[in-house]
Specification:
It is built from 1 helix and 22 strands. The protein is mainly beta.
């Protein structure tokens, strides 16, 4: 038994003995969520075998306990998920990491079903909370847990969140493994393009709410033998009137190599998102992004620009093509798929290659202003230019790409179906470098969460 698993079992046993203590059950919450999803990815370059059309049902159960009484409180969170494949067939399933929707059988078809269960033991002292387990879901500038398909990604390790200082939230943690959005199993941590992994991702940082309108963020993280990354962020909301505001969101990342990645060690190279690298395979990047959103009533118009420096592409935690027993995850257990903290992490593409300048915008409208609460629509467009070509003798010219995303959401506000949500999303991507391929993507999602009382 792994040490982390043994530690969790001991913690759970100790908590069970105190389960009757006031607060543990009285403050607990339990929910079960259903997500039915149709996923279509239409590759526009004649390679029909890569087209993807699949439907599946995902069930997610969450139990979050309260804390036992005393100076130090103990609690337990449990998460269990189950994915059921409803249709698609081998001709319309792909195991590529970018679009992993369901785990893959040896013959290349989707598995009929998959699932996993995890838990976090938690301890609270004053305004500081410690969580240790394998159902962690960080949502921080240096690590965003992915929930872009049927079921969410989760991590194993430990995190500490402290609010001992007024208006300041400290976050510290160490993560060792991840279970991806389409996998039953936990794997090591890596970056896209590497064939080795790491069991050590450490981070520390703070969010400081300077005023009710201004928040500053500073974080540092390290994925051992791959990269070190520093993040600085600023968010400010200027309230012009009761229903009118102007939001400024500034983000800056500085990433450099760590350990074996900077030593040209086999399997630890970073592919720079298919773009250029000053030192091939080595992390070397600075990326900044500025976003401005004007809101008036139900209208919201966001405009922004992002710049990736010329030395190498942006880097973030992503299993990519890590190999197992000589087999790439491109045809493995759905361990790919990731998110990162930039607006350009869009429906299909990331716009994060070396040299890339991306201008983007989004218009959204909340139809509650027209008497239809729960109905929202959004249209986004991103255009990236000056992408430095990969290190090959074939093409040294810069390239460009664009993406258009449309989204319509509705949540029932009352009656028997209160809380039932529907989301229709359509994305179109085109680029002149061939990587990724031109594609059209459609997602139709039905969501419902029932809270036990």
């Amino acid at each position: 038994m792994k040490k982390s698993t043994l530690a969790l079992a001991v913690a759970v046993s100790a908590l069970a003995q105190q389960a009757g203590a006031a607060g543990f059950l009285e403050d607990s919450k339990a929910t079960i969520s259903s997500r039915t999803m149709y996923f279509e990815n239409d590759v526009r370059e004649g390679r029909r075998a890569q087209d993807q059309r699949e439907t599946a049902e995902g069930l997610l159960f969450n139990f979050n306990s309260g804390y036992t009484q005393g100076v130090v409180g103990f609690g337990l969170d449990v998460q269990s998920m189950w994915g059921i494949h409803l249709g698609g067939g081998i001709d319309h399933h792909t195991a590529t990491t970018a679009n992993s929707f369901f785990p893959t059988e040896k013959d290349g078809s989707s598995m009929d079903q998959w699932g996993r269960t995890g838990a976090n033991a938690k301890v609270k002292f004053s305004k500081t909370e410690l969580k240790i387990g394998n159902a962690l879901a960080p949502n921080l500038p240096i690590l965003v847990s992915n929930d872009g398909r049927l079921l969410p990604q989760s991590f194993s390790g430990g995190t500490i969140t402290s609010k001992e200082i007024d208006n300041v939230t400290f976050n510290v943690g160490k993560l060792e493994h991840q279970a991806a959005r389409a996998s039953s199993n936990y794997s090591g941590l890596s970056v896209a393009g590497a064939t080795q992994d790491s069991n050590n991702f450490m981070f520390a940082g703070a969010d400081w709410k300077v005023t009710k309108d201004l928040t500053l963020q500073a974080y540092h993280s390290q994925l051992e033998d791959f990269y070190k990354q520093t993040f600085l962020g600023l968010t400010h909301v200027f309230q012009i009137a009761d229903d009118q505001s102007f939001k400024t969101d500034l983000r800056w990342f500085d990433s450099s190599s760590d350990g074996k990645n900077g030593q040209n060690a086999t399997g630890y190279a970073f592919n720079n998102n298919g773009g250029y690298a000053k030192n091939v395979g080595e992390v070397d990047n600075k990326t900044w992004s500025a976003m401005f959103t004007y809101t008036l009533g139900g209208h919201a118009l966001m405009l922004g620009h992002q710049r990736v420096n010329d030395d190498g592409g942006m880097v973030w935690l992503n299993q990519g093509n890590v190999t197992k027993n000589g087999l790439s995850n491109t045809h493995a257990e759905g361990e790919g798929g990731s998110s990162f903290y930039l607006f350009t992490d869009s429906m299909i593409n990331q716009f994060a290659r070396a040299g890339e300048n991306t201008t983007f915008g989004q218009y959204s409208y909340d139809f509650a202003r027209l008497g239809v609460p729960g109905l929202k629509a959004a249209f986004a467009y991103l255009h990236g230019t000056d992408i430095k070509a990969a290190n090959t003798a074939v093409d040294k010219s810069d390239s460009s790409e664009w993406e258009r995303d449309v989204r319509l959401d509705y949540v029932v506000q009352s009656g028997v179906l209160k809380g039932f949500g529907t989301s229709l999303r359509r994305g179109t991507y085109r680029g002149d470098s061939g990587t990724p391929a031109d594609q059209d993507q459609t997602r139709l999602i039905f969501n419902y969460t029932y809270a036990f009382k």
